[in-house]
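Much of what follows relies on a compact textual record of a protein's fold. A complete example follows; check for yourself that the lines match position by position.
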Amino acid sequence: MHRMRTLRRDLPGSFSMTDEGMARAIETDVPPESEAAATEAKNSCPVGAIEEA
């Protein structure tokens, strides 16, 4: 859960939570100022669930 809070803080508007408590990516372009945070999120996902589209 800590990582999800970090994602929502560092990438506002990029993820939402489902009723089941799972993170879901919101299909939107990552702003240039958030690209480093997005790359970090992708690289640090413990289950490899984040991929670049």
